[in-house]
Specification:
alpha+beta, Immunoglobulin-like, four-stranded antiparallel beta sheet, two-stranded antiparallel sheet, 24 helices, 8 strands, 9% strand, disordered C terminus, nucleus, cytoplasm
Length: 608
């Protein structure tokens, strides 16, 4: 036989049961209900036992309808007390439990003790603080071999068998041999060593991405808005189908759970409730930072942020839960911002106020995340599956009282024990100093820059000075050009005289035409501007001339007599030729020019 999928809804007068039986024989089906019992059969589907949360009555108003297209039976059962509210219609695992096994009582127990415990559990008011007892040193020096952990500390010895598989899931080493106090001490040391001030300050000052994810609104925010103030303050279970809707996959998972009963003493129940807060805080952080789009890191985030899962921690008060979660948010994930801690805090309060249906939906999502993660599936067996079954059986007023206690608890940065406020104050001072230095540098640059008028005046003066400079430079260039021209012309003349062939003075005596030899009969004046030539150049020229030419004395009588006779006759003294002929035949010479000249050039006589 196949257990069919089903769901329950209600209105003030009727309890509605919708059963999905595709390909069933509609002509053959049986329905039985009486009081809190309901049974259904349509081959091959059989709903053997459904224990209703309230009583129904058979008074002729009951009816059923079969939808052949969808393959569903819809059955309306009249309530025995019209207007009565049936709690826990979404807790399918609890509804499928046989009526005799719904109690958490063991098969064999002392009746009086059981009655007292049940009455105490119903009427006691949770203060969510575990009673502290002074430490008493045990007479036995040998510690117990195994220390419990898991849901309600009901498991032990699991990690001895699965040490290799669980080494990547939890941080505590050898948990079976590590007591709870030692786990807590190691956890605090690991968190202090993992905290990075640079990472925290980077997220503190550059929080654009964090502010963006803080604006995300998960499904429980809208559901919480739909609840009225009176509904939130009351301790009665509301119509969860209105605020919380389970998907078909979630319903299927609820049907797969095996119904269990848990024998928990007062201390264990406190551990379970506080562990539930720790799980919801980690889950709310993950949904916020991923904006509901879970990824491959979701499993790591949830188990790393929950000390209950990662260190098998057993908390003693709500404040310790919040401090542990806050420290781990600031040490491990990618986004380490205190605003994410407070956001997860407020989201957890909303979920608890929505009731156990909302809590169950979150636990089912965590179960799915761990189920799809290879190493983390072990945590479902240790914690999450038991939480999903247990939450369906608790009273709604317990969650309401838990949400009130959580809402009254305060959490500040100073509680983290990581000197966050000191770090932020120091970082703000450094930032202010940097801004002051930048501002001072900007002001000094502006002071160094001239005003517009000063700039224009300086431009005019610079243009005037540049024009004057250009004029003086042009004059200097012209003067230097003229001087260079004179020097170059004189050097050219000297070069021509040096390279010209020597004149045969004997040829001149024999009547050789000087013009044919390229020598002018006019006296050629060679005037050396000694003032314009460097002294070194003159000395080199003199040495070259002395080496190539010979100086000879002019006969005193010739020049003197010729000049006197001409002066006596009244004729002007002619300019003597540079080259003149000696009638005595002693050779040719250059006559001294009347113009001042530092040198006298003579040609050497060619001897036959």
């Amino acid at each position: 036989m196949i257990t069919p999928a089903f769901e329950l809804t209600q209105d003030p007068d009727f309890l509605t049961i919708i059963i999905k039986v595709p390909y069933a024989r509609a002509s053959e089906f049986d329905v039985y209900f009486e009081g809190e019992d309901f049974k259904f059969y349509a081959k091959p589907y059989f709903l053997r036992q459904l224990t209703l949360p309230g009583r129904t009555v058979e008074d002729g108003r009951e009816k059923a309808f079969y939808n052949t297209d969808e393959g569903t039976f819809t059955i309306w059962l009249p309530k025995e007390v019209p207007g009565q509210y049936f709690e826990g219609l979404d807790m399918l695992t609890s509804l499928l439990a046989p009526k005799k096994s719904r109690s958490a009582k063991p098969l064999v127990e002392e009746i009086a003790a059981s009655a007292e415990l049940s009455e105490e559990e119903e009427e006691e008011e949770f203060d969510w603080e575990i009673e502290q007892t002074p430490f008493e040193e045990s007479s036995e020096s040998v510690p117990p071999l195994q220390h419990p952990y898991g849901f309600g500390n009901l498991r032990s010895g699991v990690f001895q068998r699965l040490q290799d598989e669980l080494s990547d899931v939890i941080d505590v080493k050898d948990p079976d041999q590590t007591p709870a106090d030692e786990r807590r001490r190691r956890r605090l040391e690991a968190e202090a060593a993992k905290f990075e001030p640079d990472h925290y300050l980077a997220d503190f000052f550059e929080d654009e991405a964090i502010q963006h994810v803080l604006k995300y609104k998960p499904w429980w925010v809208d559901a919480h808005k739909k609840m009225t103030a009176s509904q939130r303050e009351s301790h009665q279970e509301h119509d969860t189908h209105t605020f919380v809707v389970f998907s078909e996959d979630e319903r299927e998972q609820l049907r797969k759970f095996t119904n269990k009963s848990y024998l928990l003493d007062k201390r264990s129940r406190h551990h379970v409730y506080l562990g539930l807060i720790d799980l919801l805080l980690a889950y709310c952080y993950e949904i916020c930072v991923t904006e509901g789009d879970k990824n491959v890191e979701s499993s790591w985030n949830i188990r790393k942020l929950s000390a209950t899962l990662c260190w098998l921690e057993s908390f003693t008060c709500i404040h310790d839960v919040l401090v542990s979660f806050g420290r781990r948010v600031l040490c491990y994930p990618l986004h380490r911002h205190f605003g994410l801690v407070t956001r997860a805090f407020s989201d957890t309060v909303m979920i608890l106020q929505l009731g156990k249906a909302a809590v169950l939906k979150c636990l089912l999502d965590i179960h799915k995340i761990f189920r799809e993660s290879d190493p983390a599936y072990i945590l479902n067996d240790l914690f999450i599956t038991d939480y999903c079954i247990w939450i369906q059986k608790i009273k709604s007023k317990k969650l309401a009282a838990l949400s009130e206690s959580l809402q009254k608890t305060t959490l500040t940065k100073s509680h983290m024990g990581l000197e966050l406020e000191e770090l932020e104050a120091a970082a703000v001072l450094v930032q202010e100093e940097e801004n002051a230095l930048k501002a001072a540098g900007t002001v000094s640059k502006q002071q160094l820059l001239p005003s517009e008028s000063e700039t224009s005046d300086s431009e005019e003066s610079s243009s005037t000075s540049s024009s004057e400079t250009e004029g003086s430079d042009s004059d200097e260039r012209e003067s230097s050009t003229s001087e260079d021209g004179e020097i170059n012309s004189f050097q050219g003349t000297l070069e021509e005289e040096r390279t010209a062939p020597l004149i045969d003075c004997n040829g001149l005596r024999q009547g050789t035409n000087t013009s044919a030899l390229g020598v002018s009969e006019e006296p050629a004046e060679v005037s050396l501007q000694s003032a314009s030539l460097p002294g070194k150049l003159i000395e080199e020229l003199e040495m070259q001339i002395h080496s190539a030419m010979r100086l000879s004395e002019q006969p005193e009588g010739l020049a003197t007599a010729s000049c006197l006779s001409q002066e006596q006759e009244g004729n002007p003294v002619p300019e003597p030729d540079r080259f003149s002929e000696d009638t005595a035949g002693r050779g040719s010479f250059l006559e001294v020019s009347s113009k001042p000249s530092p040198l006298l050039f003579l040609c050497s006589t060619n001897e036959d």
